[in-house]
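Q: Structure for this?
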Amino acid sequence: MKELTIISGKGGTGKTSVTASFAFLAASRVVVDADVDAANLFLTLPHTTLQTESFLGGRLAEIDPGICTECGECLERCQFEAISTDFVVDPIACEGCGVCVHYCPVDAISFEQQTCGERFLSNTANGPMVHARLGIAQENSGMLVSALRQQAREIAKENNIPLIIVDGPPGIGCPVIASITNADALLIVTEPSMSGMHDMERVKRLADQMRVPAFLCINKADLNQEKADLMKAFARENNIKFAGEIPFDRDVTASMNAGKSLVEFSQGPASQAVQNVWQNVTSYVNDTMNRLA
Amino acid sequence: MIVTIASGKGGTGKTTVTVNLAACAPNAEVQVFDCDVEEPNSHLFLKPENCSKEPISTMVPEVDMEKCTLCKECEKICQFSAITTIGKKVMTFPEMCHSCRGCEMVCPDNAITASSRVLGDLIKGTNSAGIPLTWGELRVGEAMSPPLIEQVKARIDPKAISFVDGPPGTSCPAVAALRNSDFALLVAEPTPFGLNDLALTVEALKKLDVPMAFVINRDDGKSRVIDDYAAKEGIEILARLPFTREAAAVCSKGLLLVDEIPEMQRLFKDLYSRLMQKADKGGKIK
Ligand code: SF4
Ligand code: SF4
């Protein structure tokens, strides 16, 4: 079983449109939406949800005013300024460290595990989709991502599914690291701009640190062909396999509006290009699979 | 006054709106703070000069094994599995540590002292037009961005007009950037993805009690999804920025729309004055 994670560094480069197309093109796969605090994949892959579960994350302190003697011990020890001078815990500021709970002399502070989102298992045309919705302003997105990927691996193993495709979040922080750890390959979807270039370099450094081989796909390449060519050169010099470029095409947004993946919706230039990228990426993934077998 | 520019979905044009608005403010009266510390981009457009850089770090425990009696109190209090005893050793996992200092406080033998791990850099500079920019750059491989975002925000002068360029999403980094803002300007993209993520951000802002308005970016003149949602929520749309290939090309080169396209300059100037009026009325001005 192989795991391919699609990330971008910069947001809005078309990562999810590419993932949805891959999910449609793969004969058999599990697809994971790891962009848990702005999940969009479900909007573009027709699905039926089979299972909904709540996801338990970290704990939260809550002071019972009936027991609290206002001794000030918790206030002094909290490193996150989460406790007000009238002894109320701000649930958004609370980091869930439990220090106040440990030191409260009268046991006035409860410390319950919080539901921080919902996770779903859905059925789509070519296999299961594992996705989630992180609660508003919730923490633990990295933990949720790891849990989703774990579930995907179990499903793939049980059903002999050879490929897991993960739609990763933007950035390079906690949920991105959780999306990349132990993946077999990364596809970086970027766009030809100064920002795209800057962000891609940072993502590539992260991939190197985590020892995951990376592919590059340049979306909307024709919006600045000169930058796109610079990015290709960067890929060559930095051991990134170039998987292809996608032209700007209004069908991408139109497919979103239709609630379908681009390759299902259209046979236009962007759709053709995505199919080409898919060929390039899978032939590599299959190659290494055969070599390992 | 702090105005945070946010969106939920990534790549809707937060940075474009932030830098162009700041650039058309009269007398360079706006200070810019880029809190998208995982992928900061504002400096690519504002081009600050003579930048100074300072590393930002956070507390992590260091254990003196000479003093440690292997009582395991540190392991018990740590909620993040960042410190644990293995055999006759205490292991720390600095990348998992949230710097709560619990282990340091609880250790009966005073074997734990505060050491530090570098989260990233805080960088400051001013561009040729006189606009000051402060931004954070998360170290590649570092998972926790909120403490660095807090550090960037700690540099805000509450008496000045400050624009905060926020990170995408609605989880801890976005919340860290939006908290304690006086006003939020949400950059909305008129697509199903854009709407879905915008609605999540609106919910987060309601929870944080921050007043807000929208600006529609890459308006194709056809889709009404944001208009309908705004009407339903009673949120004002302050501007509509059209999608043109020319605008995309200008942004891709790291140039400012207000410098290159007269029509964009007019739109941004108008947006700036409407935003200031709105924030003055709706915002909690100090
Ligand atoms: S659990 Fe930790 S962060 Fe939360 S209020 Fe208590 S001491 Fe502060
Ligand atoms: S400071 Fe807090 S989070 Fe870090 S190791 Fe100690 S107890 Fe754990």
